[in-house]
Amino acid sequence: MSIDRTRMTVIDALVKVERDDAYANLILPPMIRDLEERDAAFATELTYGTLRMLGLYDRILNTVSTRPVMEMDIEVRAVLRAGSHQLLSMRTPPHAAVDTSVDIARKLSGQSGSKFVNALLRRVSEREIEEWISRLCEGTTRSEALAIRYSHPEWIVNAYRDALGSWEECELILAENNRPAPLTLVARPGRSDGSELVSAGATAGALSPYAYRWSGSLKKIAGLNTGAVGVQDEGSQLVAILATQIPISGQDNRWLDLCAGPGGKAALLEAIGLKRGAQLTANEVAPHRAELVRHVMVHPENVCVMDGTDMDLPAASFDRVLVDAPCSGLGALRRRPEARWRKNLRDLAGLVPLQEKLLISALKLVRPGGVVAYVTCSPHIAETQGVLERVLRDKSFEAIELPAPYQGTSLQLWPHRDGTDAMFLAIIRRLN
Question: Which are the catalytic amino acids?
Fold first, then answer.
């Protein structure tokens, strides 16, 4: 497989991500399945790296072009962005990065497109990335400079700063978001004891007893085909586990995952529940996501499709409820490189009311004495503490202490501190 063909695959992926709102982690694996291992690794690095650093590259391209990037043809835009990543971050020799980009542009946009790409990339190659960053950061505020250097929207930079309370730590999380996330597997209890993973070379995680770090080919993991093993961030595993560890009085055999798609937490909750004699009902509002949940559960018949804010179920039906609320996803930007460019503050304004409605719905569905675990994959204060503060004004509910070794009534994980996605967890008990 030639490197030109590999680069063409990358351009195709970049175009699909932008034009179709596709997710790179879903579309890229089948696109590179038939590539040689070396070419597949190159394609992955080039695709993900380009998407992460897209904001910086667009600023640079706008500096060297009289035509704004967003007014260019989508294919030309993809070629220029990928070419910039090769030149500035992958240390590809300039002649190789430029020549192959020009060849691809000629195939996609003809002679005029190839000349345009050639001229712009040669100007991009005139400076190292640090020179470009220094030039772009001149006269900017600290948040603007961090947004440029680490290629994040400025509103996300400010959100991290507000949640962390420190510019220094803010910079650490921004840098971490630009590194590939480690691949973590979950050995679902009762279905796998993890021995096959250890035998294959996986290493045990630090936070979840079911987590295993993996760096090889997933084709070697037989348990992925049976559902005994899954791919799941260790932070995601931990919050699901903690949701099951808060003691409650009385019966404890009716569990609900209110927003279960695509099914990672639901499969782990079900596995833990089955060992304790509990049955999990997994709900998902989107039928296609509900189907994904069915594929990973032992009892797919326990998956239902309802609006989590208005469930057609009796009040006080469950002993434990997990609300893994739809959120901005700011906690998983290192593994979803395009996500940082798809959300804005207007989206957040629509998400927060939905999160509150889902949490209130869960608190109606749990019985007095039962607990609700509120989870988001976002550290944004509006989606975490802000939601909790408003819901807890109702004195029928109380936030409860997390089990040792965790302290306080909420947990915020961070990639740069914990090596996980930035998952948030709080557990609330219904009093009456």
Answer: 377
Structure tokens at 388: 């909790």
Instruction: Please give the Cα distance from 83 to 427 (Å, whole number).
Output: 47
Residue type, 2: S
The amino acid at 288: H
The domain 234-430: what is its CATH number? 3.40.50.150
d(CA 108, CA 116): 12
Rounded alpha-carbon distances, angstroms, from residue 88 to 42, 98, 100, 147: 15, 12, 15, 17
Element (DSSP H or E) covering residue 87: helix 74-88
Show Cβ contacts of residue 94 under 8 Å, excluding neighbours closer than 6 positions: 87, 122, 125
Q: Are 415 and 407 in contact (CB under 8 A)?
A: no
Q: Give pLDDT tens digits for 295-321.
A: 999 999 999 999 999 999 999 999 999
**How many angstroms separate the CA atoms of 426 and 432, rounded?**
19
| Helix residue ranges per DSSP H, 227-341 | 234-245, 264-275, 287-296
- Give the separation between CA 111 and CA 106, rounded to whole angstroms: 5
Please state the domain extents for the chain: 3-130, 142-177, 181-231, 234-430
The CATH number that domain 181-231 falls under is 3.30.70
- What are the distances in angstroms from CA 355 to CA 318, 324, 329? 19, 9, 13
Read off the pLDDT band of 425 (50, 70, 90).
Answer: very high
Burial label, 32 (beta-carbon count in 10 A; 0-12, 13-18, 19+): buried
Strand-pair category, 410-412 with 424-430: antiparallel
**% of the chain surpassing 90 pLDDT:** 97
Region class of 110: left (phi > 0), else alpha (psi between -120 and 50), else beta? left
CATH fold match for the domains 3-130 and 234-430 = no
Q: What distances in angstroms separate CA 154 from CA 36, 267, 385, one per listed residue?
A: 38, 36, 21
Q: Please name the CATH architecture into which domain 3-130 falls.
A: Orthogonal Bundle (1.10)
pLDDT given for residue 91 in this prediction: 84
Both tokens assigned to 281:
């009902």
